[in-house]
Amino acid sequence: MTDLYILDDLGRPMAVDDPIVWGAWLDSHHADRIVAQDVVEDRLFVSTVFLGLDHNFSAKGPPILYETMMFLHDGWKPTDWDGEYQMRYRTRAEAEKGHRAALGVAHRRLQEYDRRHT
To answer: How far, in Å, are 25, 84, 101, 103 from residue 107 at the CA level?
Structure first.
């Protein structure tokens, strides 16, 4: 069983055994890997992508192939910020739903930050 995945022409994950094929696909399909990316209030960047590597780490169950992360945007340097965020998903549909949820989290975290610092 392989831990390497690419997306077929319809955007469905497909396992591959050849790391050369996998690496070449990752290099040439960067845009295809992006599920959604948004900037929130010009301070946070929320990105959801297809990972191409099963992050289930050989545990039982379907592969975990998508991830949402939140980053500081464009040099914003808040004080006492604990804004780390990472969630992983098994399917694109879960990833899309998770991305929308992460946008809500970003807005709430920024509101809370602003309340503490105004």
So the answer is: 34, 14, 10, 6
In a domain, 66, yes or no: yes
As a dihedral over the C-alpha atoms of residue 27, residue 31, residue 36, residue 39, rounded to 10 degrees, the angle is: 90
For 14, list phi and psi in degrees, rounded to 5: -140, 125
Domain count along the chain: 1
Torsion of CA 55, 61, 63, 67, to 10 degrees: -60
| pLDDT, average across residues 16-39 | 94
Name the CA dihedral angle for 69, 74, 77, 81, rounded to a multiple of 10 degrees.
Answer: -20
* Residue indicated by tokens 């831990």: 3
For the stretch 36-87, pLDDT in tens is 999 999 999 999 999 999 999 767 789 999 999 999 998 888 887 777 899 9
